[in-house]
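Final report, closing paragraph on structural work. Over the funding period we assembled a curated collection of sequence-structure pairs, and we close with a single example.
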Amino acid sequence: MYTLMATNPAGLVVLTGKTALVTGAGRGIGQAVARQLAAAGASVMINDIDRDALFETGHLIGEAGGHVKAMPGDLTSPEFPQKLVDAAVNGFGSLDIIVNNAGYTWDNVIQKTTDEQFQAMLDIHVVAPFRVLRAASAWLRDTAKKEIAEGRPVMRKVVNITSVSGTDGNAGQSGYSSGKAAVIGLTKTIAKEWGRYNVNVNAVGFSMIDTRMMKPMGEDSVIEMKGQKIPIGVQPAMLGAVERFVPLRRMGTVEEAAGPVLFFCSPLSDFVTGECLICGGGARS
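Its predicted structure, as stored:
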């Protein structure tokens, strides 16, 4: 079980009065991000395709005194992102932070990668974030114009999650790497489109974070997506080589991964936009 911090580690981030939307919040990095945002005072709308895991996150946040609403559902369903955004705005009256975190891996060398497999990686890693941002665009734009006209501009935040597989490539991950690279392009483009509306749009890329995707691969290491049983995890030999791959000589924790996301969600990043920050202990894929 993760420890919910009363504040961020530096004690600097205060998000009272803000509303955040976090996808893929059922476990791992997404859960850690949602809990740190709530600990900093934000009201949090959380989403995950795994209903039980999502409600467990909601319970942990609520038990710690945070304000949270949960909406399970499949982000790759074309209509769902709009419903999720509407639920956040209607439920809390605002939308100030969007963290597009949901994702998974479905790996294979290119000659064994099917069209379905490749498209699934694009759908979750770049199409779903695109639809979430498009769904939020009208509310963000109209609200910002009103605030600017009244002389009280408000900074809002988008953080898209990517990977060193997207920045550097990774053997066996043509689909995953392509999706994660594409979301960087989306990030930089929306940063230029939404700067006039006082929205910072950035990305955080991860490598070697201790989640279920980095556990030793075995017979039980599978997730089920739309009827497909997809192997997850890594070969044990790779885990044994962490000290060689990572200058800090260990994997990062999910709380450490959530830190850069919290930075981009906070006033500390008000003059930072269109950037991709790598959080991987110095590792490259």
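The chain has nine helices and nine strands. The first helix runs from residue 28 to 39. We thank the funder for supporting this effort.
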